[in-house]
């Protein structure tokens, strides 16, 4: 491996760009590996979720080392501790590889230099001035949590916004900035917007959407409510977005308010591969029938919208690989027509989605549902991850919990696809020791991961002994008990939702 040529190494490392732990390990192999990994790590060094930037002094030191001596001297007089060496002493010209700005992460790093607000402002100004000189182009820009309009700094006009391909922002950013950006950045491929306020329409964001020529991914997240929200709050955004429907492959919308514009524009998005949405309950059946997405691979929808999910799956299910039916622990009980619609949903999945690999499935513990789940498992042989949860009309007695849990395990014993490697049981599932052992015995030669929400029964000595036995035999890769919230977050990460 160490003798692979430079071009092949670079291609391999590019595939690892979302896996910083592996890339950091590559730095230690030899100089050639290090030289190929460094440019990829530094292309977007602020994006790694598992890095705590609050205590990464080396990042502050590396950036500050690039500052001219006269700037270092003036800043040091304010009590800011800066490194004594220059960037010429570094092994690599790190900043020349960088193609991204993340306002929040850079602010966090700047705070390492000084706890004083004014000093942080001065550092911020000098750092961004430095970035305009060192960054050859700008591809990724995250404006969330912006404190100052950095692009009003004297040298900010030198940023090459025309190369921007990903923008993350929120509606608290001044609208004038988006108008300015629309003049330069017309080839953004990924646009992600957090909506903090809705007192008025942001025509700057609307303009930015309108001028895009290659927009493939759009995401909108309402993260605050406004009791004085205007009628049709998303209308202008959606109309602008609808004009780009021929290019958009990935659409993620979390709206807090109903808007009739959705029904008008949604049938236009016929090239979608990903659809994540929480507001199909505003559609009637005829409007849903018009939503046909032949290339759809990922569908995320609320469990209150099973009818909508069934219609979309029937129209668009041939290429679906991931179906996630969202749930809420506070809403785990029956709602109108759930039994009927959940049966229809299960049937639509196994009739239209034989290639499904990741499935989050709600069901009602009735014999009809168990029969349909068994059919689904027999047909969907490519299934790798199954998350399954019950929607009840009453609290189950201990006896019912055991009977329903055992019935489900018996179906899994008879019909589980051989490719299945992960099962998640949400809410209360009780299994007798005898049936659980029979189920685990089916998986010899495999490594199955099981995730449940916290259940005291599995901490009993006889259950722990059984689980450890199958762990030692390699049947169980992992058997975890998590809180409901943690379990859902783990699954969403696996589903990449």
UniProtKB/TrEMBL annotation:
Gene3D superfamilies from the UniProt entry: Ribonuclease Inhibitor (3.80.10.10)
Lineage of producing organism: Eukaryota, Fungi, Fungi incertae sedis, Mucoromycota, Glomeromycotina
Record protein name field: F-box domain-containing protein
Entry-linked InterPro entries: LRR_dom_sf (IPR032675)
Top-level lineage group: Eukaryota
